[in-house]
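Holo model, iron/sulfur cluster. Inputs:
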Amino acid sequence: MIKVSNIERFATHDGPGIRTTVFLKGCPLHCPWCANPETWRLEPVLMHDEKKCVRCHSCQTVCPEGAIDFNPAFVLYSKKCTICGRCVEVCIPEALSVNGKDMTAEEIISEISKDDDYYRNSNGGVTLSGGEPLFQYERVLDLLKNLKEKGYHTALETTGMYSSEKLKQAEKYVDLFLFDFKHVDAGKLKEVTGGDFEVITGNLEYLLKTCQEKVIVRTPVIPDFNSDVIKEIINWAAERKAPEINLLPYHSLGKNKWNDLGRTYSYEKYPMMDKSELSEYAVFGESLGIKVRIGG
Ligand code: SF4
Ligand code: SF4
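Output:
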């Protein structure tokens, strides 16, 4: 079984054409600006939307584990919660939901195949995202193989945080890597995201040497993290002959999910970045022979 967070149809930002993006559970990193924090853990997670909650306390009444309390806002004692789903069933305004379900590769492909005509007409396909799609390595490798056998264009949105052996196996079944490269400073990368610079850059360098045409480097531009080293990042990618780098302006669209998970979103104080704030980097990239696109 593959642990899936969400399947999004008609996606247009995760590779060419019209696509279906499959968000998979599990991630080796913990970026504090993450837009999909519900994907971090492999296990399902209970989410509570405070804005929808009418404080009827029905969830607290039915919970067999005593995992819900009010102070007066909703509080979940996640260690007690067994994700039985009873509270979700009684929550009429749908303030509660469980994120995460087990699906077979066949079930995922059956969902994907609903839009075959759209992929054909737009040169689109399927993007595996997360989390880190290769976190569930064996099962996702099998899914990728299956997708290629059926003729789908496959993209992998990836942190690069896994062994080189895994990458070499997966590479055969991936048409496009959307490869996150977040920082040129190993210490800062480790401290803030938990990522290992040697592992990630080793994998990115391998792809840029062996199949550079299949790689788009992606850098989320994050205030007080990497916004002061964007030229160094572009330079690093250009030196290794990356054909294209996408700069993704910081946004706080994941904030509500952090709240729904009962976690604190530490980037609250930063305003959303406008694309125009990054336009100077397109010119800089041109001078180095690398295409810089603002946005994904
Ligand atoms: S059942 Fe839903 S609406 Fe009622 S208190 Fe619980 S979360 Fe809020
Ligand atoms: S999912 Fe089950 S155990 Fe968890 S809070 Fe809801 S009713 Fe309680």
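The mean pLDDT is 96. The first helix runs from residue 58 to 62.
Archived with the compound record.
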